[in-house]
Amino acid sequence: MVEPGDTVVAGQQLAEVGNTGNTTEPHLHVQLMDRPHVTEAAGVPFRWSDVEILDEVDRSFTKEPSTEVEEGLPADGQVFSVS
Q1: pLDDT score recorded for residue 42
Q2: Average pLDDT for residues 46-63, to the nearest whole number?
């Protein structure tokens, strides 16, 4: 697992996903920053690799997905899996 201030590399496990709070299912929030302090940091752009868009999903919890697709960037509302 990763601790604050650690440097990470592609493919490294960062955390485990669970279902906490007021949610309908497990999910993950991702925020990449160039410094440890949020008031001084800038966001770091990233893309997912090995993304599989899941078409057969329950849409009762999310809006219809956008049709705009860019490799490595699932569209707004798309449900996806990363291998």
Answers
A1: 94
A2: 74
